[in-house]
Amino acid sequence: MSAPAIGAKEAFKEALKTLSGKVAFGLLLIIVLMGVATPIYAPYNVVKAWSMREVWMDNPPCAAPAWVQFFVHKKLPKTIIIENEDFHKSASTMEHGGVTYKFIYLDAYFDYPYDEFPNKISTFILQVTPTASNTNYVILSVTFERPDGGKITFVSDSSVPVNKTLELRETTKDVVEAAGSYVQSITGEFPKNPLPYVILFAEKGEYMNDPKHAEVLKGTYRIHIKCIAVGDPNANVAARFVLYGRVYGMAGTDSYRRDLMIGLLWGAPIALAFGIVAAVVVNLVQTILGVISGYFGGKVDDAVQRVAELMMIIPVLPILILISFIYHIRIWTLLAILVAFGIVGATTKTVRSMVPSIKEEQYILAAKSYGAGSWRIIFKHIFPRVLPYTFSLIATAVPAYIFLEAALSFLGLGDPILPTWGKILGDAEVANAAYYGYWWWIVLPAACIGITAMAFALLGYAFDKVINPRLREM
Fold first, then answer.
1. For residues 259 and 253, is the Cβ–Cβ distance under 8 A?
2. pLDDT in tens, 66-98
3. Shared-domain flag, residues 118 and 262
4. Looking at the structure, do residues 264 and 235 belong to the same domain, yes or no?
5. How many domains does the chain have?
6. Is 65 a domain residue?
7. What residue numbers bound the domain in which 154 lies?
8. Last residue within a domain, chosen from 192, 217, 243
């Protein structure tokens, strides 16, 4: 193969003038903008908490992106959070038989104007925390009031320990039984499998436990909490309520409630950094060794070529899988291993085949006649000649390294901390996202990988058009 006669700078300019180069530049600009937006939308302290489930508890699990409601023509429920300060609080005390009774009432109202029921995986969480210093227990009642006047009592005058948080969810036994009893009061029959996420928000009727036929009851709902503390006038109670929706953010959430937009954004700079650094370092080193091998010839050439042939037959992927399985390496350690295995390879042999013809060109002979040393000729005259070809190899190698990292992460052998596109896909596979229809969990990271790979593939094709005379556009 002959070396391209065009210089590196000119090759880059000409590549960007081609149609494929322009498309590649546009796609890369999108990925770069994602990387720029990363520290704004998702600072590093958020990424450190990526695997900490408690950080994401306010997010709905497996929620679709918010923009899907424009395609289904329905107003899908979003998450509603009522903090303690949003509850209306009133309190009173009374004396009876020498004992002080303190009554505390908390009320919270929220509107539900949506066309679908709340998140069925995790519908709500109500946290009630009574505090007191002179008593160990308080009497607590919690009632859920519907817009039609129906009342569902989750807790009725129960003794609850103080300074501990009482958590009520759709799976709590008291909540399930209360929801079933409410259906029984309407239909006369206790349902076999009460579904609180439907019952609490369904219009009264025989189908109010059937998510396929029940109608959503829109309007203003109320949460009423009554706390009675005996013998402690300083007792208090705090509450917090989260009603989980079905849509969230620009990219939805996963089963761990994590905002997938954070993972997608952080995946962009990680993929670009990993792929570009690996491709640039490996191909530049191989190019330089190929030039040295072809220029000096003899024993140097034999040594470099034999090592290159040896490295080309080593199965790198199984070795990386084995190393990752044993040591759980970080992403930059993986990069160092790739560089170590890529010191010599196919590029070395290809570049070596170009060098003999370049050595015989007149400007090289002229440089020798003026007393130029071998290393000056190598780096000043020969290396720039083969550099445009190296650009093409770098551009086409980047997707391969991105796919490699994604494959290892998909298998659970990637970086255990950083959120990457491959890791997101791996988590989706473990959670059977395709089976349950959580398409955004699969499509969005796969699209990011595909767009990035396409961008560099088109860029490599653009370089081929410039440096290969048979593909060069007229």
1. yes
2. 999 989 989 999 999 999 999 999 999 988 777
3. no
4. no
5. 2
6. no
7. 76-243
8. 243
- Does 239 lie in the same domain as 261? no
Handedness of CA 183, 188, 190, 193 (dihedral sign): negative
At residue 151, the 3 state secondary structure works out as strand
State the Cα–Cα distance between residues 211 and 202, nearest whole angstrom: 9
Query: Which CATH number covers residue 150?
Result: 2.60.120
- Describe the crossing of helices 8-17 and 383-410 by its angle, rounded to 10 degrees: 60
pLDDT (mean) for 133-162: 94
pLDDT digits (tens, 9 = 90+) for 298-322: 899 899 999 988 888 888 888 888 8
Using CA atoms, how far apart are residues 88 and 86, in angstroms rounded to an integer?
A: 6
pLDDT at residue 361 in the model: 83
Residue 474 lies in a domain: no
CA dihedral 216, 217, 218, 219 (to 10 degrees): -160
Look up the pTM and report it.
Answer: 0.84
Residue 326 is encoded by which pair of tokens?
């044993």
- The β-bridge relationship of strands 137-145 and 99-112 is unpaired
Residue 130 lies inside a defined structural domain of this protein? yes
Residue closest to 288 by CA, chosen among 384, 198, 397: 384
Average pLDDT, the chain: 89
% of residues, the chain, pLDDT over 70: 97
- Tell me: do 314 and 460 sit in the same domain: yes
β-pairing verdict for 99-112 and 151-161: unpaired
pLDDT for residue 474 = 42
Average pLDDT over residues 25-46: 84
Tell me: do 202 and 232 sit in the same domain. yes
Counts of helices then strands in the chain (DSSP H, E): 17, 9
pLDDT, mean of residues 216-232: 94
- Rg (the chain; Cα; Å): 33
Give the domain CATH number at 453: 1.10.3720
- Identify the pLDDT of residue 4: 54
Q: CA separation (Å) from 105 to 21, 136, 139, 224?
A: 67, 19, 12, 7
Interacting residues of 300 by C-beta distance below 8 A, sequence separation 6+: 292, 293
Q: Confirm whether 90 is domain-assigned.
A: yes
Please tell me whether residues 272 and 380 are part of one structural domain.
yes
